[in-house]
């Protein structure tokens, strides 16, 4: 007989508490793991409302405990810290196998005046009752403990999820707990997130241990081949299987014991020596025809590659820092919330997530795309396609490629297309909002399946590239108008970066000086920029954004008389003299007016900001939904909250 799953709603658990007060443990109302925990707690003499004295390490003991568990801390700390930055409003705990909190990240929750969860506290079930870290250690599986399922705290303001982390021998290294507000409507989202965390860390352990060996990644979906759900197989130089991660056993349909020691050729169906020659310099995609279906694989040579989810997230911070100078320079004058999103996009691109750039014409979307490509190490080519610059009849062939003789005028031997050209690198789909609807459907399939079929050809060509899309149009508005596919939008909008207009950026005077110096160096000219002119340039509205500013400065430089030492307003063309003549005085007049009514305006700004923050909280931090409710754009909401 199949056991009925318990309804884990607040009302049901409150019924369970009522039964317990009457002396009966209602296991039929509880999730099986929660029921077992409540039973153990009762046997330990713990009851709802009991106020335990929780063991807590002092500073010296905590330092010694961290030294003892240095391996866990070094493995998990970078990744957990990064996730905590993304999940503001949550608390993450790194916990040892004896249920001691090694480190706390993010928000600090208090269950009551007496109980504040933090580093050094011990969450053993015998002291603290039912809680996610203790239960995950006992069950050796990911768990969710909703607010009132915490036996000792029926009115707990938080819920928590936890997942254990196992080493290659199956021993528990520790676990990760994620605590969040109890009224969240979908706690399973956090459970999946913590499972992804431990999965990424277990991948990293495997790859670190076998970094001098060949490693095969396997998955049923090409799109998920780099995800934490992919399986890993370690192979020695002779082609013998050394180890099989648990996820790989599931995909391959065989347990690890039966696979270890066998030649990999039995799985791959190809000569090992030929595969080694093919993959000795870089990873290669493979199609694996196995009993029961087809799998995708990627064979990686020893010590020459970075694992996808495990190391791309946790170990790329030094890489990002080393290659972020151009990105930092571009976002230096941006409003801080928008600059933060640009840096988040760099981290997301490293993991293989797509990035969408939105901004007015001339705001520098292509420059930002190149900076993001460089921020992930600049690996592979950077390939761009402007979807608005080609007629509809040519976009398809240019993007997907074509076979020989596919149409009149097709080049001999065919053409691989931009997607194939970008393999191993980054593809920029500029002005994606202008792509015809029919091609949007085909692009969506390619991005999902990671396989492209050129026009007039039957071959399926695997692709592996990072994707950045860009548009000056509001894609969400085009989705609502039926002019852009909703499913493609959500496929592209992994992280959305809204580029500010030039007039919205601060420190514009400094930016103009820096750009002027770079142009002087490029053209081999020493020419000073007059301070008054610089102020006028900074005060101008720049409707054409960066493109207009760049054009203005470069034309002024190359057109200046050879004997000129300092560029002033009078040295510019009559057109630009007219444009800039009133910019500084208008700005000063506005500033004077604002100073006269500063107190009133500030009060209004404070009220507006408070209303915006309340709206954002009501929509659980969803900026798009909050902006829609307020009737403003996302960039306006970001700017006014900065």
Automatic annotation (TrEMBL):
Concerning SMART domains, the annotation shows: AAA
Pfam name, any one = AAA_lid_14
Gene3D superfamilies for this protein: 1.10.8.60, 3.30.450.40, Homeodomain-like, P-loop containing nucleotide triphosphate hydrolases
Q: Which UniProt keywords apply?
A: ATP-binding, Nucleotide-binding, Transcription, Transcription regulation
Q: Which residues form the HTH lysR-type domain?
A: 618-642
Q: List the InterPro entries hit by this protein, alphabetically.
A: AAA+_ATPase, AAA_lid_NorR, GAF-like_dom_sf, Homeodomain-like_sf, HTH_Fis, LysR_HTH_N, P-loop_NTPase, Sigma_54_int
Tell me which residues make up the Sigma-54 factor interaction domain. Answer: 338-558
- What name does the UniProt record give this protein? Sigma-54-dependent Fis family transcriptional regulator
**What organism is this sequence from?**
Billgrantia campisalis
């Amino acid at each position: 007989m199949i056991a009925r799953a318990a309804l884990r709603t607040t009302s049901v658990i409150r019924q369970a508490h009522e039964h317990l007060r009457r002396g009966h443990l209602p296991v039929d109302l509880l999730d099986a793991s929660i029921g077992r925990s409540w039973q153990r707690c009762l046997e330990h003499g713990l009851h709802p409302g009991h106020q335990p004295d929780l063991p807590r390490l002092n500073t010296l003991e905590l330092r010694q405990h961290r030294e003892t568990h240095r391996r866990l801390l070094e493995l998990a700390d970078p990744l957990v810290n990064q996730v905590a930055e993304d999940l503001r409003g949550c608390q993450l705990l790194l916990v040892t196998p004896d249920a001691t909190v090694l480190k706390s990240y993010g928000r600090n929750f208090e269950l009551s005046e007496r109980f504040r969860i933090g580093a050094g506290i011990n969450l053993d079930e015998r002291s603290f009752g039912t809680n996610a870290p203790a239960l995950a250690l006992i069950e050796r599986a990911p768990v969710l403990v909703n607010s009132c399922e915490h036996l000792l705290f029926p009115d707990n303001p938080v819920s928590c999820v936890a997942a254990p982390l196992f080493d290659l021998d199956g021993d528990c290294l520790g676990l990760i707990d994620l605590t969040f507000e109890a009224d969240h409507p979908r706690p399973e989202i956090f459970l999946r997130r913590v499972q992804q965390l431990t999965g990424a860390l277990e991948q990293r352990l495997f790859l670190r241990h076998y970094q001098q060996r060949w490693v095969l990644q396997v998955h049923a979906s090409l799109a998920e081949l780099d995800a934490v759900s992919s399986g890993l197989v370690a192979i020695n130089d002779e082609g013998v299987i050394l180890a099989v991660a648990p996820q790989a056993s599931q995909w391959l349909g065989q347990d690890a014991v039966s696979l270890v020691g066998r030649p990999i050729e039995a799985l791959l169906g190809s000569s090992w020596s030929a595969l080694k020659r093919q993959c000795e310099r870089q990873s290669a995609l493979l199609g694996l025809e196995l009993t029961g279906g087809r799998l995708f694989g990627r064979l990686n040579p020893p010590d020459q590659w970075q694992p996808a989810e495990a190391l791309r997230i946790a170990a790329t911070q030094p890489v990002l820092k080393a290659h972020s100078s151009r990105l930092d320079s571009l976002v230096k004058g941006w409003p801080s919330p928008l600059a933060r999103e640009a840096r988040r996009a760099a981290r997301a691109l490293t993991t293989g997530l797509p990035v969408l750039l939105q901004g007015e014409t001339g705001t520098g979307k292509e420059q930002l795309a190149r900076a993001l490509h460089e921020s992930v190490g600049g690996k592979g080519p950077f390939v761009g396609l402007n979807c608005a610059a080609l007629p509809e009849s040519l976009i398809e062939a240019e993007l997907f490629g074509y076979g020989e003789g596919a149409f009149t005028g097709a080049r001999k031997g065919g053409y691989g297309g931009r997607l194939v050209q970008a393999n191993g690198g980054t593809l920029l789909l500029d002005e994606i909002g202008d792509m015809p609807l029919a091609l949007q459907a085909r692009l969506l399939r390619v991005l999902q399946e990671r396989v492209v079929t050129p026009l007039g050809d039957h071959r399926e060509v695997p692709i592996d590239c990072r994707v950045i899309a860009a548009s000056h149009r509001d894609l969400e508005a085009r989705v609502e108008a039926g002019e852009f596919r909703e499913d493609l939008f959500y496929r592209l909008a992994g992280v959305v970066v809204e580029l500010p207009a030039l007039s919205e950026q601060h420190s514009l005077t400094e930016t103009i000086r820096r750009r002027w110096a770079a142009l002087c160096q490029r053209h081999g000219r020493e020419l000073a920029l007059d301070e008054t002119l610089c102020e006028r340039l900074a005060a101008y509205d720049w409707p054409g954004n960066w493109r207009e500013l760049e054009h203005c400065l470069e034309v002024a430089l190359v057109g200046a008389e050879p004997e000129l030492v300092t560029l002033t307003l009078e040295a510019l063309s009559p057109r630009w003299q007219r444009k800039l003549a009133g910019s500084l005085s208008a700005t000063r007049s506005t500033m004077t007016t604002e100073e006269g009514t500063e107190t009133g305006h500030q009060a209004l700004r404070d009220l507006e900001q408070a209303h915006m923050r309340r709206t954002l909280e009501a929509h659980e931090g969803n900026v798009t939904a909050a902006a829609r409710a307020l009737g403003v754009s996302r960039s306006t909401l970001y700017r006014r909250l900065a």
